[in-house]
Design brief:
There is one protein chain. The chain has 290 residues and is α/β, with parallel strands linked by helices. The protein is globular, with a radius of gyration of 19 Å. The chain starts with a helix and ends in a 9-residue tail after the last helix. The protein is 44% helix and 14% strand. Strands 2, 3, 4, 5, 6, 7 and 8 form a 7-stranded parallel sheet that branches. Strands 1-9 form a two-stranded parallel ribbon. The protein binds pyridoxal-5'-phosphate. Pyridoxal-5'-phosphate is lined by residues 74, 76, 112, 134-135, 218, 259-261, 275-279. Residues 74, 76, 112, 134-135, 218, 259-261, 275-279 line the site of pyridoxal-5'-phosphate. Residues 1-30 are annotated as: Disordered. This is Pyridoxal phosphate homeostasis protein.
Length: 290
C-alpha cells in the first residue's frame, strides 16, 4: 500500500505516463484500486514495450516487415483508463517505426462481452480509440453491439451474418468482419468447423453491410507447439484455398491468430493480427471486486 501511495502522489509511472485524470478523480476506492492494478501499474509501459519488441523480433525472424503485423491489444476486464494508457505507449512506439495502428487508421482494442463494450464505448467516447469484438456473439445481442464496434472477428454462422447485416443496414453502417474458424476441432470452441468454412465464406457476399476482411482462429491451448502451429497452418491453408477459388471479391488479407502464449509462433506462420491481452495488461480478474 505504501508503494501505491507513493506512486499516487507523483501521478506518474516510471515510464512517464500520466494516468487518466478524469477517471481517477471520479473513481471510488474500489475503482481506484482497479486502476492501480491496470492503467497505473508501474510495469504497464515496460510490458507494452516488451510485447512490441517481441512482435518486431518475430517479424524479423520470419523475414516479414514489421508493418505486416497488427498488434491488437485485448482489453477485456481492464479499465478504460488502462486502454488509454496502453494506447499512449503504443502510439510512441508505432510512430517511431511507422506502423499503422489498425485498419480504421486508429487503434482498436479487443473485447468479448457485449455489456462491457456498451460501458466502455461510453467511457471512451471522444478518445481516438475503437473497439473490436473478438469473441462469440449471440444473435440476441446483435442489436446491442452493432454500431459500437469497428470490427467483428468471430463471425461463425450464416444466421448471425444475416441478423448482423439486417441491423447494420438499419443503422446505415457497414462492419469489417473476420470469419472465426475452429481449427482445433475441439467441441468446446466457437468458430465454424473447417469443413463448413468455405461454404459459409461463399455466402457472405449476400450481405451488403459486411466487409469481409479475412479469417480468425483460437488455436488449441496446448504446450505442444506442433499442435498449435498446425492450427495456424490450417487457417493459412484455408486462406490460400479461398484465394485460389476466388471466393467473394476479397483477397482474404487478414489472418488473426496468436495470443499472449503463442503470438510469436503465429507470426512465424503468417498472422497479420495478433490478439494480445495478458502480456500487455497483466492478468485478468474475473471476480466481482476483490
Ligand atoms: C482473451 C482473448 C485473447 C487474449 O488472450 P491472452 O492470452 O490474454 O493474450 C485473444 N483472443 C481471444 C478471442 C480472446 O478471447
Amino acid at each position: 500500500m505504501a508503494m501505491i501511495e507513493d506512486s499516487a502522489a507523483s501521478g506518474e509511472t516510471p515510464g512517464g505516463l500520466r494516468a487518466d485524470e478524469p477517471a481517477r478523480t471520479a473513481a471510488g476506492a474500489d475503482e481506484v484500486r482497479q486502476l492501480w492494478r491496470g492503467a497505473v501499474g508501474t510495469d504497464l509501459p515496460s510490458r507494452v514495450r516488451d510485447v512490441w519488441d517481441r512482435v518486431g523480433r518475430a517479424c524479423a525472424a520470419a523475414g516479414r516487415p514489421r508493418s505486416s503485423v497488427r498488434l491488437l491489444p485485448v482489453s477485456k476486464t481492464h479499465s478504460a483508463a488502462s486502454i488509454l494508457a496502453v494506447d499512449r505507449v503504443l502510439d510512441t512506439l508505432a510512430t517511431r517505426e511507422e506502423v499503422p495502428a489498425g485498419p480504421a487508421g486508429r487503434r482498436l482494442f479487443g473485447e468479448n462481452h457485449v455489456q462491457e463494450i456498451v460501458a466502455k464505448s461510453a467511457q471512451l467516447a471522444g478518445h481516438d480509440v475503437g473497439l473490436a469484438l473478438i469473441g462469440h456473439l449471440q444473435s440476441n445481442k446483435v442489436n446491442a453491439v452493432a454500431g459500437l464496434v469497428e470490427e467483428f472477428q468471430a463471425l461463425d454462422s450464416l444466421k448471425l451474418a444475416a441478423k448482423l447485416d439486417r441491423r447494420l443496414s438499419a443503422l446505415g453502417v457497414s462492419l469489417r468482419v473476420l470469419v472465426e474458424v475452429n481449427t482445433s476441432g475441439e467441441q468446446a470452441k466457437h468458430g465454424v468447423p473447417m469443413a463448413e468454412a468455405t461454404a459459409l465464406c461463399r455466402r457472405l457476399g449476400d450481405f451488403d453491410c459486411l466487409e469481409v476482411a479475412g479469417l480468425m482462429t483460437v488455436a488449441v491451448n496446448s504446450p505442444d507447439r506442433h499442435a498449435v502451429a498446425a492450427c495456424f497452418d490450417r487457417l493459412a491453408g484455408l486462406q490460400t484455398q479461398l484465394r485460389d477459388d476466388a471466393v467473394l471479391d476479397s483477397s482474404w488479407p487478414e489472418l488473426s491468430m496468436g495470443m499472449s502464449g503463442d503470438f510469436e509462433l503465429a507470426i512465424a506462420h503468417g498472422a497479420t493480427t495478433v490478439r494480445v491481452g495478458t502480456a500487455l495488461f497483466g492478468p485478468r480478474d474475473y471476480g466481482q471486486g476483490d
